[in-house]
User: Fold these one by one.
Assistant:
Number 1:
Amino acid sequence: MTPARTPRGAGATSRPTTKRKRRKPDPVAIWVRRLERTRPNLVDDVLAGLASIYGRETWQRRLDPTSELILTILTQNTADVNAEKAFEGLRGAYPSGLPREAHRPGLGWGGTGLSEGAPPDWMAVETAPLAELIDVIRPGGLGPQKAPRIQATLRTIREARGDHALEFLGEMAPLEARDWLTAIDGIGKKTASVLLLFCFDQPLMPVDRHVERVSHRIGLIPAKATADQAHDYYLAMLPADEADWEHANTAYEAHVNLIHHGRAICHARKPDCAACPVRARCRFIDPKAP
Ligand code: SF4
C-alpha cells in the first residue's frame, strides 16, 4: 500500500530543499582585516609621521554649507586658486546682502583663500541666464560644464527643501547626510564628504586625486581601488566613535595631512621620498615595506 502523502506544512519534517545563499564577502572588511594582520598600525603610523612635520590641525568650519558645496563644484578638475576666482565672481555678480563670512581654508587647500565677503544670492545664481553665469564663472575654467551643474544643484536643493540652506545636514547621521547629497545629480562621495567634513566635522574622509595617489603608493588602499571606492575603505579604516569626538576627527586630520603631503612632498611626478616621514612604511619605494 502506498503511504498517504503528508501535506506541506502539516507537521511534516521535510527538509527545505533550497540552499541558503551565502553572503558575498565584503572586500572592504577583508582588506582592513588583512592590513591589520600583515601591516599592523599602518594607519596610525602614517598619521603620526605626517603629523610630525605638518602638525595636527584642529577642525574649524571654513564656510557656510551652501557656499562650501558650490565652491567644491567649482574646484572640480581645476586648481583651487581658479575656483576662488570663480566664486569671487559669483559674489560680485549676485550680491546677497547677507552677513560677511571669513574663509578659513587651512592646510590642504591649494589656493590663497577667499577674501572675506557675503555668500552670493543663491536664488539669483539659480535663475541667472545660463550664458551670463557661464561668463561669470569662466575665470575658474569649465564654465559651460559647471554653470548648468550649479544651477541644477541649487534647483534640486530648493525644490526639496524650500530654500538653499543646508544647515539641516548637520543634524543627520553622516551616511544619511551623504546619501541625501549624492542623490543630487553630479554630486559624488568626494564633494558630499568635503561639505560634511568641513562644515559639520562629520567623520567622512574625502578622497581627491592627491589623497588617492599617496594612499595607493603607501599601500593604504588596494592597488585597484578607485577614488570612489577609497571612501568606503577609509570609512572602515578610520572608524568614528561619536562619543569620542577627538577620535571621530581622525578623518579631518587624515584628509588635511594626506592632501597636503600630496602637494608638498609626494608629488605626482617626482615624489621627494628622501624628505618623507613615512618612507619606512611606503610600498612605493619598498614593495615589502612593513
Ligand atoms: S615615501 Fe615617497 S612615495 Fe611614499 S609616501 Fe613618501 S613621498 Fe610618497
Note: The chain has two domains: 41-58+205-281, 65-200.
Number 2:
Amino acid sequence: MTPSLSILSDLLSIPSVSTDPEFASGMEDARSYLLTLFTSLGFTAHLLPGRLHPAVFASYIVNPSHPTVLIYGHYDVQPAGAPSQWTTPAFEPSIRKNRIYARGATDNKGQFMIHVMAVRKMLESDALPINVKFLIEGEEEIGSPGIELLTENYKTLLSADYLFLSDTEMPALGQPAIDITLRGCLDVEIHIQTSAQDLHSGQFGGVAPNPAQILAKFLSRLKNGSNKITLPGFYTDVISPNDEEIRDFRKTEPSDTQLLKEGHYFFVGGGENRYSLNRRRWFEPTLDITGLDSGYTGIGTKSIIPDTASAKISIRFVPDQDPEQIYSSLASSLHHSLPKATVWRLIRYPVASAFKAPTDHPVFELVKSSLKSVFGRPAVFQGQGGSIGSVPVLVRALGLPAVMIGFGLPDENLHSPNEHFSLENYFKGIETMSRIYSALPVLHLPNRPESIPIILETSSPGLL
Ligand SMILES: [Zn+2]
C-alpha cells in the first residue's frame, strides 16, 4: 500500500458517525488523527467550534502575497447500518477490484484526502506555490448546523481567493466533470383544520367542509398542466444556463430508460417537457409534495369527515430565486385559497441556499484543462439537483469562487452498505489537484487589488 493510500485507510478505520452520541470517541479520534496528520505536514492545525462537533482547521502559508485556496471537506460519516449487509466490516477498510470499501470512502474522506495528498506531494517536492487552508467539517451529515456561525466568526481566518471541494460525482468512470450548480431547498408544512373533531359523514356530509378536499384542491393547483409552478412571481429571478453550459449538459444527457433504471421508478414526469432532463434536474426549480395526512388510514373504512389535513412540501429552488419571496408567495396563495373560517398554519424549516459557479472565471479553464490532461478526456460542466449547505454559506461570507470537482462515481453506495471509492479516481484526483494548485499563481486573481501583469515580448513597444 502506498503511503497516500495507507493514510486514507487509517482515517477510514475510525468510526466518525456524527449523528449518534455513541460514536463521540470516534469523532474525537478522527479529529486528532487529522490534527496530527496536518501538523506532520507542517501545517498549523487546530479545532474550530461547531454546534455539536468541532471542525478541523489547518493552514500552510507559503507567502502572504501568493494565492490562497480554502479546501472544504467533512470527516463525519453516515451510520454504517446493519453489519450483515456489508461484505467486509464498515470500519475495516478493504481493497477489492481497485476500490477501497469502507463507510466514508467516497463521502467524504476519500475525496477530501485527494486534496491533502496533492498538497503533501507538492510539499515533498518543495513545489507548493500557493497558501493552503483546510476546513474539515464534522457536522455535514447532520445538516451543517454550525457552519454559518463558524464562517461568520472566523471570516478572516478562512479568507482565501478560491474555494475547492470534492464532495460530488463524475457521470462515469473516465468522464471528468465540474459541478456548477446546487439547488437550494425550502421545506414547509401546511396544516388546516375545519372542525373541532372528526364528523359523521352521513350526518354532516354536504353541510360540513372537508379539509382533505380543500387541501387537495390547493395542492393540485400549485402546478399547471405543463408542470409549471403557478405561485405568483415564482420564475421571475430564475437564471438560465449559458450556451456552453447547455452544450455540456447535452453531452451527459441520460435517456429516459437510463434515468428510470438509476432511480428505480416507473416513468419520467414532474417537470416541464420543453427542457432537457439534465436542465430539469440541475437548473429548473421544482415543487414536490413529500407527505400527505388526513382522516382514517387504518384497515377497513371509517365514515367520517376528518377534522384536519396536512401536507409537507419541498421546493428545490435555483439561483437567483429568493426563498423568502417563494415562502410569502406560497403563504399568500394558501391564505387566499382557503374558505374564510379555516384554521391554518404554515411551518417552515431551515433553508439551504442555491449556488451557481461563476463559469466565466479563468479558474474553470485551468480546471478543465488539468482534468483533460490527467483523464485524457474533456471535462464537462454538470449540476447537482441537491444541496450542499456549506458551499453557498462560504461563498457568500468569503466572496470567492467555488470550484466543485467530484471524483466519486454514481454507483459507490454513499449512505448505503458497501460504500466504496475508486482508487483509479483517488490517484488521478491527486494528480489533477496538484496540477491545478501548481498552476494557480499564473491566473488572474479577482479578489486582489491588482492582477498579475502578463509581460509579452515585443520588438515594437508601441504595439502592446
Ligand atoms: Zn453524505
Note: The longest helix spans residues 105-124.
